[in-house]
Amino acid sequence: TRIEHQILLLIVFSLINSKYLQVSNLLGYKVSSRFIYVFSFLILIYCSIILLYRINGETHLSKALEAEKKSDNKTVIFELNKARNPFFSNDNFALPLDWHLGKAYYNDGDFKESLYNYKNAYKSNPYSIVVNNDLASTFIKNGKVKEAISQYKEALSISPHYEDARLNLAATYYNIQEYEKAFETIDLCDS
Questions:
Q1: Minimal CA–CA distance to 164: which of 142, 143, 185?
Q2: Could you tell me if 47 and 9 are in contact, meaning their C-beta atoms sit under 8 angstroms apart?
Q3: For residue 1, what pLDDT is reported?
Q4: Averaged over 135-144, what is the pLDDT?
Q5: Which of 115, 92, 88, 83 is nearest to 102 (CA)?
Q6: ∠139-140-146 over CA atoms, to 5°?
């Protein structure tokens, strides 16, 4: 959840609390306001903790994205590892932090670590065409061509017009000398 959601939740609890106190006073019920205040305070503490974790995660993600623009993969990896916490695991576009880590390791030439992170990103968001495509490309770099072909096909099953996956699949077929499949695949491109 975003920070705004936490604040909205606090406002809703405050409104419910005030209405509850008004109704209970009208009906003659004796409500211990101490219980309500303690409960509200505990909710506030919980929401504040989540808020602080999320702010920390977003701050480090922002630093990682700035480092990514400068191709400073070591800083990207460092910042993304600091950004990860139980309440912050995706960026604002629903891409897992593991996808960003996989990308940094890939750009740094560490394809085994990249594969590990892309697999984790896939577990978090298996319907992302970007995650599927990049996982497939990393399978290629790790010599796992069959898995790559399967992953490219999965990306295309999610979005049949995703040209990056289609072109990568055609290139993979071409590189393993399956020229007919490569031609059939590239022939399906829209442009």
A1: 185
A2: yes
A3: 47
A4: 97
A5: 115
A6: 75
Query: What does the block give as tokens for 28?
Result: 């003659």
Stated length of the chain: 191
Three-state SS annotation for the chain: CCHHHHHHHHHHHHHHHHHHHHHHHHHCCCCCHHHHHHHHHHHHHHHHHHHHHHHHHHHHHHHHHHHHHCCCHHHHHHHHHHHCECCECECCCCCEHHHHHHHHHHHHCCHHHHHHHHHHHHHHCCCCHHHHHHHHHHHHHCCCHHHHHHHHHHHHHHCCCCHHHHHHHHHHHHHCCCHHHHHHHHHCCCC
β-bridge mates for residue 153, sequence order = none
How far is CA 167 from each of CA 131, 133, 141, 174, 177, rounded to the nearest angstrom?
Answer: 16, 10, 16, 10, 15
**What does the pLDDT look like over 147-162, one tens digit per residue?**
999 999 999 999 999 9
C-alpha to C-alpha distance for 145 and 175, rounded to whole angstroms: 10
Average pLDDT (132-159) is 97
Number of Cβ within 10 Å of residue 114's Cβ equals: 24
Model's pTM, two decimal places? 0.81
Query: CB-based contacts of 153: which residues, under 8 Å, 6+ apart?
Result: 169
